[in-house]
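BUG: 3D viewer hangs when loading the predicted structure for this chain

Environment: internal workstation, default settings.
Expected: structure renders.
Actual: progress bar stalls at 90%.

Input used:
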Amino acid sequence: MTLPFAAIRPGPLSVRFRVRTVVVCAVLLALAFAAAVVSLGTGDVVLSPKEVLAALVGQGSPIADLVVIDLRLPRVLLALTIGAALGLSGAIFQALTRNPLGSPDVIGFNTGAFTGVLVVTVFVGNAYFMVAAGALVGGLATALAVYLLAYRRGVQGFRLIIVGIAVNAILISVNQWFVIKVDLQAAYAATIWGQGSLNGLDWTQVPWVVPLIVVLMIGLAIGGSRLLLLELGDEIATGLGVRVEAARMVYLGLGVALIAVATAAAGPIAFVALAAPQLAQRLTGSAGIALAPAAAMGALLLIVSDWVAQHAFAPTQLPVGVVTVTVGGVYFAWVLARVSRTQ
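Structure tokens produced before the viewer hung:
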């Protein structure tokens, strides 16, 4: 069956898209917005969706404005933005490796970003920009190490995953060593943060996290077509005029930067980057990994997981990573079983 396509032609330009993909993106974004409204209205002070929407457009009561805008909105914005970044990062690496296991939390890139954060926290300080720089450097260094170790007349996807899993195991041990060496209070904070948590995030993080992720998304959108060509294989991409290794390094950098910013803000949140692209692909029915649906799915998964983390055992708030690991572990086992049957 031929899937329906549509095209927009503003002047000399032409943009072609699949109708089903646009519909799926719209539905996922609507669900994410609905989950955000529920999250903004849930807590010690319960607000109806109407009160939440009134506060968002500047027509709420003083109490609603305080609760929604000052207290809850930054966490919701960060959950949506970080979830989208995780979904996009997972989509990039799964497209590059052409394997559903090619996720940054499987091949060690977010663990490397966490290592960078621990090194900076222990030896330099815990200012936000220092932490962000440490996460970026740690993630890039891990990506470079995995890339070089996996390189053999080019990079084959499955070899990259195997090398990444080995590097990830080493970095987990390094991170545990750092946690053991610091004082008890710092070790406790690092352990909680290392689970991936949105607890305690406020407007302080929004001005640097959201713009950085938006800039990276724009950069990815500009060169997104090359990623689709790389997913077809090196030979086909080369035949279509793509400089394969250079393009792969650019996407590798963008993917690591997305996961590094997310890790710097909320710690290494597992399994969202793994599950979001695959779930989005199944909904859209596309042949390859689609970036926009993966971002929308990542935002939906994280905002829902964070709501569960906040309220499942209230008044105790769990790190959101505990929820994503619990759900994602089942999904990961299913993916492993599925991949093993196809090898």
